[in-house]
Amino acid sequence: MQELMDQYTSSKISRALLDEVIKLAKQFQKKFQRIPAFMEVCGSHTMALARTGVKKALQNYIRLISGPGCPVCVTDQATIDAMISLTDGENRIICTFGDMMRVPGSYGTLMQAKANGNDVRVVYSPNDAVRIAEQNQQKEVIFLGIGFETTIPILAAALKEAEEKQIHNFSIWMSTKLVEPILRHLLNNKEVALDGFLLPGHVAMVMGRKHFEFLAAEYHLPGVISGFEAVELLSSLRRLLMLALEQNALVINDYQSVVAEDGNEHAKYWMNRYFALCDEPWRGIGIISQSGMDIREEYRHFNAKEKFSVPMRSPRKTKCRCGEVIRGLIDPPECVLFAKACTPLNPIGPCMVSSEGSCAAYYQYMREE
Question: What digits encode the pLDDT tens for the residues 332-349?
Answer without folding.
Answer: 999 999 999 999 999 999
